[in-house]
Specification:
The protein is of the alpha+beta class. The protein has helices at about 30-35, 40-45, 60-70, 75-85, and strands at about 10-15, 20-25, 50-60. A three-stranded antiparallel sheet has the order 2-1-3, sandwiched between helices. Strand 1 (about 10-15) and strand 2 (about 20-25) form a beta hairpin. The protein is globular.
């Protein structure tokens, strides 16, 4: 059993088509991995949401949930502005978090 997280994260992930997915979690690395593998979450699996492009860290779960709701309520253009403020190139911020098997193709 995991101990309670010390931080909570609101994050935005995307795919090649730039479909946006906003979520909240106490375990960002694990949750991003689940998205990349298509584990848990019907929307993320259906749209192959596999790139972390934005996140914020919170010490309080209620603040994180409130921020997630706020971001989900934003127009797409405002979400894009958030992403660009942190990550103008839309790079996968989790790219170096996981070991890639030598035979696994690069994600383009």
């Amino acid at each position: 059993m995991h101990s309670p997280p010390h931080f909570y994260y609101v994050y935005i992930m995307t795919n090649r088509s730039k479909t946006l997915y906003t979520g909240v979690t106490g375990y960002l690395e694990r949750r991003v991995f689940e998205h990349k593998q298509g584990i848990k979450g019907e929307f993320a699996a259906r749209y192959k949401i596999d790139r972390l492009v934005y996140f914020e860290r919170f010490g309080d779960v209620h603040a994180a949930i409130a921020r997630e709701k706020q971001i989900k309520g934003l127009l797409r253009i405002k979400k894009i502005a958030l992403i660009v403020s942190m990550n103008p190139e839309w790079n996968d911020l989790s790219e170096a978090w996981y070991v890639r098997h030598q035979y696994q193709p690069d994600n383009a």
